[in-house]
Each structure stands twice: as C-alpha cells, then as structure tokens.
Amino acid sequence: MEAVGISDRARHRPDQMSGGEQQRVAIARALATHPVLVLADEPTANLDTENGRQIMEIMVRLNQETSTTFIFATHDPRVVAFARRMVELRDGRISSDSLHT
Asked: Which of 27, 29, 78, 101 has the most CB atoms at less than 10 Å from its CB?
C-alpha cells in the first residue's frame, strides 16, 4: 500500500474510499506476490482525468523500480500515451505494433 500511496487508508473499507483509492488497492493487491507481469484491463475506467493520470504514473514508476511489466487493454488514448509499446488489435489480429519513445 505504501508503494501506491495509500498506507493511511489501510483500515478503511472500500465504500469509504474514492474510486482512485480503490484502483490503488487493486494495484497493491496485484503486486503483493511480486509478479513479473501484471495484466490491466481498462486500468483507468471510471476514474476522472487526475486519478487516471496518477494511477498510470504509479504503474510507470513501479515498472521502473521493480521491473514489473504492465500490459494494458484499453481504448483510452490517455493510457496509451504512457505506453512504451503499443500493439493494436483489429478483429482478433495484430494490425500494428509500434514502440513509443
């Protein structure tokens, strides 16, 4: 919980947390076993712009600090902007594969 910035909310129930805090809990739970890969389906869905940006910044930082790979499934161009690589699927097939710098 410390890694995602919600240590102070450890004793709170989900209904006492904001959507952004709940997403951070989900990230913390996903990282609890120190995986090398995390699959995130629409990681910023239902979040406002600021909370979505914070979630993505957390994932980028954790990628850099722990070498955990994050794979996102998303339709949100704001999420894509954080990616180093984008693989686009159309009709179940790879239609493009590009690196972002």
From this structure: 27
Rounded Cα gap, residues 74 and 29, in angstroms: 20
pTM of the model: 0.76
Cα gap 35→10, rounded to integer Å: 22
4 CB-contact burial (10 Å; exposed 0-12 / middle 13-18 / buried 19+): buried
Residue-range definition of the domain harbouring residue 53: 7-99
Q: Domain for residue 27, yes or no?
A: yes
* The token pair that represents 99 in the structure block: 């690196």
Q: What is the pLDDT of residues 52-67, one digit of tens each?
A: 888 889 889 889 999 9
Q: How far apart are CA 56 and CA 61, in angstroms?
A: 9
Contact criterion met (CB below 8 Å) for 44 and 20: no
